[in-house]
Amino acid sequence: MKVAIEMFSMIIAITLGCILFASIISSNNQVSDARDFYNVAVNRIEDSNCNDSVIHQCISEADEKGYKLNVQDLTIYNEQPSRLITLEYSVTLPVFSLFGEKFNKQGVIEGYAR
């Protein structure tokens, strides 16, 4: 009987550990996806020389993915356009949704396109 209780408690501990690690991996994947989208958007804006139609297309794609992309014009000289690009995203932790709570963490990535 003692072995059965030990095995049962070990199985519960392993299951909880797997759920916790899966939650951490999921949140890291969400952050990685946001960072990848940000890098692609900045590269597209830089390659187009800060074209307004490309900027609006990137903003609409960010809205479709659930992100908020802000682009501010910081151009001093017309020959060298510069934009401050800010991406706001949210990360949900699935382990808290198992208990009925929805826990969201907000993240921001900032950088320049020149």
Characterize the structure shown.
It is a single chain. The chain has 114 residues and is of the alpha+beta class. 56% of the residues lie in helices and 23% in strands. The chain is built from three helices and three strands. A three-stranded antiparallel β-sheet has the order 1-2-3. The radius of gyration is 21 Å and the shape is rod-shaped. The relative contact order is 0.16. The mean pLDDT is 90.
Would you spell out the secondary-structure blueprint of this structure?
Elements: H1 2-47, H2 52-65, E1 68-73, E2 83-92, H3 94-97, E3 104-113
Antiparallel strand pairs: 1-2, 2-3
Helix/strand/pairing category: alpha+beta
Distance between the termini: 70 Å
Task: Specify the number of helices.
Answer: 3
| Strand coverage percent | 15-25%
Order of strands across the main sheet: 1-2-3
- Most strands sheet: 3 strands, antiparallel
Secondary-structure element series: HHEEHE
Global outline: rod-shaped
DSSP, total strands? 3
Helical proportion, percent range: 55-70%
Low-confidence stretches: none
Radius of gyration: 21 Å
Mean pLDDT: 90
Can you give me a brief rundown of this structure?
With 114 residues, the chain is of the alpha+beta class.
List its traits.
23% strand; three-stranded antiparallel β-sheet; alpha+beta; single chain; 56% helix; 114 residues; 3 helices; 3 strands
